[in-house]
Specification:
This protein is of the alpha+beta class and 844 residues long. It folds into four domains: 191 residues, no CATH class; 193 residues, no CATH class; 262 residues, no CATH class; 161 residues, no CATH class. The chain contains 25 helices and 25 strands. The strands form five sheets. Strands 16, 17, 18, 19, 20, 21, 22, 23, 24 and 25 form a ten-stranded mixed β-sheet that branches. A six-stranded mixed β-barrel has the order 6-7-12-9-11-10. Strand 6 and strand 7 form a beta hairpin.
């Protein structure tokens, strides 16, 4: 039967090409997402500044979080703890350096501290000169820096004796250039070296190190020394090889986690879409051969032989398609990764990987879809009895099988359950975590019963179509109803495209708009002062508050904290904002129900009312927290606030939260104008007051625009991945409709011989394409509504999503145009020749 399968493929080029396209694009997308996932799992970035040290030690970025109430836990039972990732850099104590020097096999230990600065308008990183050995940098000219001096890179254009202004930690200082150094390798960010005293002062973390480089004696086994170092540096990360890049570029590790999530969601969604599209294409191809398969049954072919032939054909096509996809997958994956880097989702230092595993996974997913689709497509033909074979070929196949019914019922039940959970349990934007998966369940459920639903929809739409289109529309309705299973093969991918695109895009636009509303509601500032050199000087607040026309000024710090007591099993990091007590009431509009934000000094916190209720805490009570860098702290509740549901943040004193962030300083200062002062005039006064400082001043519009930009990064990722899936679905829609229309050449010829003109045949085909598109659009809209409405009820207290109606109109317009073009163009080609030739030709 395999030999027969190869022979039939040569005579069935239309079905071959259609199946090949569907399998190829499905495997290509899955393989490219696999490359993104492998890149995220590896999280590799080539070390640059730390390349010379064979071993690098960094602070541990995780801590053990209990899965149950610590009061009932055995501290030695590690199974009841899980690692929680800290959002801020964990620094090391410099005292570890002397302990590491005593480790056997260690020849030298060098600590490294980096801090952002600018020289002129050029951003750079500051370091102590001692750490130059970690690259290694070597002096080209001049000497090592003393106090008040710096060593710069050759590319700076400076020379010994020059003066250079350095902006760091919100202040500008002048330094003398003592020397010029060069590096043996390319460095992403320029370096400026200081004396050890100046570096400790400017970094803001004296006695601390970002990383520690460990050098081994010649001939020592690096892995053996690494194990000994790990025994001394308890709780720290001890890295070798390419893993050292994470110590230098911690954003590579965080971005790697994001890539895993992005690739997992997009890849899983792509597999689901591929399953349906491939199954739809193969099912349509097999249906078009129903007469041929029936004849084979009638002349003695056994059911097993028939199934083997159909399966063999599909596997041959699938193997060819997946082989090509495996070759091209890395190119698409690398392009996608480049787009993520270009739009700030992943750092440029992260190395893209795509080995053999993503190709195997993509090929395996595609071949699994092919196998299942071919098995289902050949099963029905194999079950037909020889005496019924020819009759069966002339009628519409039974479509509602027990398997379809069960799968549909389970999916509709699951979608309904998720909708109930979304409405009854979820709050705010986190409702998307259940609303998102719901669209998949609704889509699968509808796909299982598409022929039946399409039959009902056609019956409803036939009257307006007949009224508008006359006899041509009537013929289109009759043809669609007679070949409802064939029509359903085209309706399903349209439904998937419309449903998935509408749901995902409107979920994203609604979340983005809600986040912007929450931000603009809470922030009352008329101007913002931002840092151009790693953070604002702590004394800038008093300086700005003294400017005429300023009603209040407050530092604005953002981070995340973890609740330790009272215990909360759902805590995975809660948003935290740091404010200056004297200006908090003036610059933010958060409603205070108990206490006063002016009491936010020392170790204190303002709890959102929902947290206060859940934790049974009020003003005067104590809460135990772990700050963003892992530092434990007990804070007193001094206020309870009422904030928009789903966007609650704990409020802290800025001088408590900022030192435990990576920057160590507030990145922004919010300023409120006095009632009688024009905000534009205030902005100009602030620019005059901060002249000469490494800051920039913007109005309220700039503040909101910066927040919108942060939100837009996440939205862009969603749009890119949804766009990929939609593009695949669009190709599959065109593929299915072209296959279905081209196979009707003989039918069109017979119509023309019985009196229909070519124009009438084309109008009929156009009405059929319109009916298919309209049915798919209706079903896709229902699928999208099943996830959007519950989410909007919870998050926005509305039935309708936030976002332009043009989004939906564009989606359905594209679906309708695609269906019409993919139907009319093949129909026009199929009716070009004489009707007699078409009527007497085969159907391929």
């Amino acid at each position: 039967m395999l030999r027969l399968a190869f022979r039939t493929l040569r005579l069935r080029k239309g079905g071959f090409i259609g199946t090949f396209i569907a399998v190829f694009f499905g495997a290509l997308i899955v393989a490219s997402c696999g490359g993104l996932m492998e890149t995220g799992i590896r999280g590799n970035a080539e070390p640059q500044r730390l390349a010379a040290a064979p071993i690098v030690v960094t602070g541990g970025q995780t801590f053990e979080m209990p899965k149950e109430d610590p009061a009932s836990l055995d501290a030695d039972d590690k199974r009841k703890f899980e690692d929680a990732r800290l959002p801020e850099r964990v620094r090391l104590d410099d005292g570890l350096v002397s302990r590491l020097r005593t480790v056997p096999g260690v020849s030298d230990v060098v600590s490294e501290v980096s801090f952002p600065l600018t020289t002129g308008d050029q951003p750079a990183l500051g370091h102590a000169w001692d750490s130059a050995a970690l690259t290694p940098y070597a002096l080209v000219t001049g000497t090592a820096p003393a106090a008040g001096e710096v060593v710069v890179e050759s590319a700076s254009g400076l020379k010994p004796g020059d003066r250079v202004d350095v902006a760091a930690r919100g202040k500008v200082e002048s330094f003398r250039v003592a020397g010029v150094a060069g590096s043996p390798r390319s460095i992403t960010r320029a370096a400026v070296f200081f004396s050890a005293t100046d570096a400790a002062r400017l970094s803001g973390y004296p006695g601390k190190a970002d990383a520690i480089g460990v050098f081994t004696v010649p001939g020592a086994d690096v892995e053996a020394v690494q194990a000994k170092v790990a025994g001394v540096a308890t709780g720290a990360n001890v890295l070798t090889g390419i893993d050292r890049g994470v110590a230098e570029f911690p954003e590579a590790d965080t971005s790697g986690t994001n890539l895993i999530v992005i690739a997992g969601v997009a890849g899983g969604l792509s597999v689901m879409v591929a399953m349906f599209v491939v199954a739809s294409t193969l099912s349509l191809s097999t249906q078009q051969r129903s007469r041929e398969l029936a004849l084979m049954r009638a002349i003695g072919t056994t059911p097993r032989q028939l199934r083997r032939m159909v399966l063999g054909e599909a596997l041959v096509v699938g193997l060819l398609a997946t082989a090509l996809a495996a070759v091209l997958g890395p190119f698409l994956g690398e392009w996608l990764f480049g787009q993520l880097v270009e739009n700030g989702v992943a750092p440029a230092v992260l190395r893209f990987y795509q080995g053999w595993l993503p190709a195997v996974v993509g090929a395996g997913a595609a071949m699994l879809a092919v196998f299942i689709a071919a098995f289902v497509a050949g099963r029905r033909a194999g079950k037909i009895r020889p005496t019924e074979a020819l009759a069966e070929a002339a009628v519409t196949r039974r479509w509602l099988t027990p398997t379809r019914f069960v799968v549909a019922a389970l999916c509709f039940g699951g979608g309904t359950a998720l909708a109930i959970v979304t409405v009854a349990v979820m709050t705010g934007p986190i409702a998307a975590s259940t609303a998102g998966p719901a669209v998949i369940l609704w889509a699968i459920g509808v796909a299982m019963i598409t022929p039946g639903v399409a039959k009902v929809t056609t019956a409803i739409l036939q009257w307006p179509m007949r009224l508008l289109g006359g006899i041509d529309a009537r013929l289109a309705v009759l043809n669609t109803r007679a070949g409802i299973v064939r029509a359903a093969g085209a309706v399903t991918p349209i439904m998937l495209a419309v449903g998935i695109a509408t749901a995902n895009i409107y979920l994203q636009t609604t979340q983005q708009e809600l986040a912007n509303q929450a931000f603009t509601e809470d922030v009352r500032a008329d101007a913002v002062i931002g840092s151009a050199a790693g953070g604002l000087s702590p004394d800038l607040v008093q300086r700005i508050q003294a400017v005429p026309g300023v009603a209040g000024a407050s530092e604005y710090v953002t981070s995340s904290v973890f609740l330790e007591a009272p215990y909360d099993s759902s805590d995975d990091g809660r948003p935290a904002i740091g404010l200056t007590a004297s200006g908090a009431n003036a610059t933010i509009d958060t409603k205070v129900t108990q206490g006063d934000l002016k009491a936010l000094t020392g170790r204190t916190v303002a709890l959102p009312d929902v947290y206060a209720k859940d934790f049974d805490r009020g003003v005067g009570d104590t809460v135990s927290l772990r700050l963003g860098d892992g530092t434990p702290v007990d804070v007193e509740v001094v206020a309870v606030t009422s904030q928009r549901r789903g966007f609650e943040s704990l409020l802290f004193p800025a001088d408590l939260l900022a030192p435990h962030t990576t920057a160590g300083l507030a990145p922004q200062l919010l300023v409120r104008a006095a009632p009688d002062v024009d905000p534009a005039a205030l902005t100009e006064r602030l620019r005059e007051a901060t002249a000469g400082l490494p800051v920039f001043v913007g109005d309220r519009g700039a503040l909101i625009a910066a927040h919108d930009k942060d939100q837009a990064v996440g939205a862009w990722v969603n749009y890119l991945l949804v766009g990929m899936i939609i593009a695949y679905t669009v190709i599959s829609v065109a593929n299915t409709l072209v296959m279905a229309t081209v196979r009707r050449r003989r039918e069109f010829g017979l119509q023309r011989l019985t009196g229909s003109t070519r124009a009438q045949v084309l109008r009929m085909a156009g009405f059929e394409g319109g009916l298919v598109a309209l049915t798919g659009i209706v079903l896709g809209t229902v699928v999208a509504a099943g996830s959007i409405i519950p989410f909007c009820l919870v998050a926005a207290d509305s039935l309708l999503p936030m976002g332009s109606p043009l989004i939906y109109l564009s989606i359905i317009g594209l679906a309708a145009a695609l269906a019409l073009v993919a139907t009319l163009v093949p129909a026009w080609l199929a009716t070009r020749g004489p009707a007699v030739d078409a009527a007497t030709s085969g159907s391929d």
